[in-house]
Request: fold
Amino acid sequence: MPQEPFAFAGDSAAKSRISALILGAGKGVRMNSRLPKVLHPIGNRPMVLYPLNAALAAGAGTCVVVVGPGMADVAEAVAPVPTAVQAEPRGTADAVKPARGAIGRDADTVLILFGDTPLIFPQTLEAMIARRREGGHAVVVLGFRPTEPGGYGRLVQGGDGMLEAIVEARDATAEQREIGLCNSGVMAVDGAILFDLVDAVHNDNAKGEYYLTDIVGIARRHGRTSSVIEAGADELLGINSREELAAAERIFQQRMRRAAMAGGATLTDPDSVWFSYDTVLGRDVTVGPQVVFGPGVVVGDDVEIGGFCHIEGAALDRGATVGPFARLRPGADLREGAKVGNFVEVKNAVLKPGARANHLAYIGDAEIGAGANIGAGTITCNYDGFRKARTVIGDRAFIGSNSALVAPVTIGERAIVGAGSTIDRDVEADALALTRAEHTAVPRAAEKIRRRKAGDAPESQGGKK
Ligand code: UD1
Ligand code: CA
Reply:
């Protein structure tokens, strides 16, 4: 599922001496969900993959995700990154212990991140690693100043700016609660002593939990320093509820919109365009309002996407035109200059260069030849209730409006299908195929019917007044 992992793993000796732990064993009660909290999606992928990928991008050679018992779905989502199981959620220090075997003592720095804090940037982690190495600190903590410090742990600094302790809000004195600088939860810890520090943590506090935050005070008592790096609150939003999930999604979408515009795309109404984590837009792409990109969309240069389109698992080559009001489903493959207009649905189908389906059509399990024209109301009948079958349409063929193409069926190159036809046999190249009931017209019959129905007042039925 994560696409980056092995691109970064071990790409330099120094980097591979960084390990990372992503804590995700908490139940996430406030989400009120059957799904583990860290699997709730942001930009259409599980949130735990964001801190994981940030750690990998910052150079972590070994990563372990800590999960609770019965969280096989989390293990599946993060694979091939391994997981370690914390038997009971006894606190963030206890959560580190199951990773002991996988992390060992070789790492010079161990990053600890939370699976519910997805908006972190790799550069921030890199700055923490650098600070820890340069200062020889036991711990570097990532701090931030939320508008509502509320339940966050407070960072207690000495006169020299060094971090002396982290105090959980519940255990803090009134004076300590006045501190605006808070613990994001993200830490960079000296790998040689991490597990010694964690083993020394007790649970004599308000919650009766083993607090990872205590390692700062413990290190200090052993003569080791700790330091703080600050980052923006937008980067460190922790997700505990659906409301916070929505807030994180908004921040993520703003980043995607900005990146799309910086990459040379015009978004006429950026706030109404929704991206997936992997959406790729080329240069000089135009995207109208209310467009939703599901996962797996790659858009080439000079593509125009009108408003109100829903696009997922689709490739749009250079100069393709889509919408407004089009739906491209997985496997839609629009080649150079192809056009898909309003109320057209495309699934698992290639439209070769210059092919057009401008209005009201369903194109599924099909191959549409270069320059072919698909008339309004055309349906590829790809499913007979038992299995799917393919429709193949040759180059420059013309499918008249309101035609039903009953697959499997092949329409030859340059063939013409007359409007309103139901085609269930192959059509040769250059042929005309037409299936229509006889045209019948009875002169004056309409007039007679009107008279009969309306008695002697034919004018009352519309027409002349
Ligand atoms: C924690 C910090 C607090 C900080 C805040 C930032 C501690 C003691 N407190 O508090 O200083 O301001 O995060 O958001 O560290 N987890 C486990 N196993 C456990 C407990 C937690 O894996 O036994 C995981 C959770 O899944 C979650 C993360 O650790 O991803 C944080 O746990 P949470 O209970 O949310 O900590 P906070 O009370 O928010
Ligand atoms: Ca939390």
Remarks:
- Residues 116, 238, 240 surround calcium ion (ligand 2) (CB under 6 Å).
- The radius of gyration is 31 Å.
